[in-house]
Amino acid sequence: MDPRIQVIVADITTLALDAIVNAANTTLMGGGGVDGAIHRKAGPRLADYCEKIGGCETGDAKITPGFDLPARHVIHTVGPFWTGGDRREEELLASCYKRSLHVAMDNGVRTLAFPAISTGAYRFPGGRAAEIAVKTVSDVLAKREEIDLVQFCCFSEAAGELVAARLKALDDAHG
Ligand code: APR
Predict the structure, then answer these.
(1) Which of 128, 134, 151, 122 lies closest to 59 in space, CA to CA?
(2) Nearest to 149 by CA among 159, 157, 141
(3) Active site residues
(4) Is 117 in the pocket of ligand 1 (CB under 6 A)?
(5) In the predicted model, what is the mean pLDDT of residues 2-18?
């Protein structure tokens, strides 16, 4: 397994990394779940800054400062809402991870954490989402050396086990 990839169970707003990723919506103006937690802890300057950005497409990512968060930056990405899998949900979820990593590398972010994008309010099945997350991040890191650490920050032991199982499966496949 790539030692730069880890799974942890934590509240992502407590992590003092170069960046944390937010599972946002297209308005970037905040919401519930991890998005609400990030906006609360970053303080009102985050929404002011996001308002100037003017939104984000599903599958894309935008970077802001972390303001009052311990993380220096927030990379906001917008996951797909799961409606059964025939509206490009898998491709769009992979795009969230890819675009977030590219925005990170473009901005000198070397350490970052992802929440389980789309697996809450957006209802993406957790096992399939974990598989896409692990595969997409591993593929990017295999080609690039600018990233030192990616943490999959899960909010429950059960979610952490889904990601750990996918990391192990990938490891076994590579012998
Ligand atoms: N730290 C880490 N993970 C968290 C935290 C937290 N503080 N809070 C919630 N999570 C986890 C949830 O348990 C879930 O597994 O983040 C995952 C994603 O869930 P949501 O936050 O609901 O995100 P998502 O499914 O992508 O839905 C996005 O919800 O809050 C709104 O504005 C947001 O409209 C957007 C939608």
Answers:
(1) 122
(2) 141
(3) 35
(4) yes
(5) 97
Task: State the CATH number of the domain containing residue 22.
Answer: 3.40.220.10
User: Among 14, 25, 34, which is best to mutate for testing ligand 1, by the most ligand atoms less than 8 A from CB?
Assistant: 34
Task: Report helix, strand and coil shares of the chain as percent, to nearest 5.
Answer: 45, 20, 40
Task: Give percent of the chain above pLDDT 70.
Answer: 99
Q: Calculate how far, in angstroms, residue 28's C-alpha sits from the geometric centre of ligand 1.
A: 13
At residue 28, what are phi and psi to the nearest 5 degrees? 60, 15
Ligand 1 centroid to Cα of residue 23, in Å, is 6
- The total domain count for the chain is 1
Q: Which domain holds residue 158?
A: 5-174
pLDDT digits (tens, 9 = 90+) for 152-165: 999 999 999 999 99
Query: 59: Cβ below 6 Å to ligand 1?
Result: no
Bridge partner list, 75? 21, 63
Give residue 32 CA to ligand 1 midpoint distance, Å: 7
Is the pLDDT score of 175 beyond 70? Answer: no
Q: Which tens digits make up the pLDDT trace of 44-72?
A: 999 999 999 999 999 999 999 999 999 99
Inform me whether the pLDDT recorded for 21 exceeds 90: yes
Which residue, by CA, sits nearest to atom 26 of ligand 1?
Answer: 118
User: Structure pTM?
Assistant: 0.98
